[in-house]
Write a sequence for this structure.
């Protein structure tokens, strides 16, 4: 028994730093029709009762900047989806306001510690728009179809 306790203590001492550097675990849980819950390391961050689903598009890291991108599926023909960013880089995770063009197809890029999400025009909505999230702030720029102007260097 004593040997087992010593082995557990040794494993904790060796694995502790590695576990501390591991990326936060983001999970989406919920029944087929909701409500859906977003958990970070097992702690509730957000609950969404009216969505038809929430998808974790991906997790992105560059230096101390860490993000996760969520797609909230509305189930509506008029506006298929909206997005939210989870900022995982600080002591506590932060959730951005909802954003999007209603398109469900993002193009994602991590640049200089900021997460850039470009969404194309959806039906009769606005032209392609890029959102930039960094240091707790969400900004947007609109450009031509394809979003090339929005992703121009210098932003």
């Amino acid at each position: 028994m004593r040997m087992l306790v010593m082995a557990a203590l040794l494993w904790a001492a060796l694995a502790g730093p590695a576990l501390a550097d591991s990326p936060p675990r983001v999970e989406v849980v919920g029944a087929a029709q909701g409500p859906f819950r977003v958990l970070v390391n097992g702690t509730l961050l957000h609950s969404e009762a009216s969505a038809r689903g929430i998808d974790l598009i991906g997790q992105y890291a560059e230096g101390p900047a860490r993000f996760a991108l969520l797609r909230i599926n509305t189930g509506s023909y008029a506006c298929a989806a909206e997005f939210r960013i989870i900022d995982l880089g600080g002591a506590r995770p932060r959730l951005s306001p909802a954003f999007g063009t209603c398109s469900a197809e993002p193009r994602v890029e991590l640049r200089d510690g900021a997460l850039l999400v470009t969404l194309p025009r959806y039906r009769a909505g606005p032209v392609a728009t890029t959102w930039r999230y960094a240091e707790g702030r969400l900004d947007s720029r609109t450009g031509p179809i394809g979003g090339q102007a929005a992703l121009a260097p210098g932003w």
Summary: Residues 103 and 122 are 5 Å apart (CA to CA). The chain has one domain: 23-142. Residues 1-20, 145-150 have pLDDT under 50 and may be disordered.
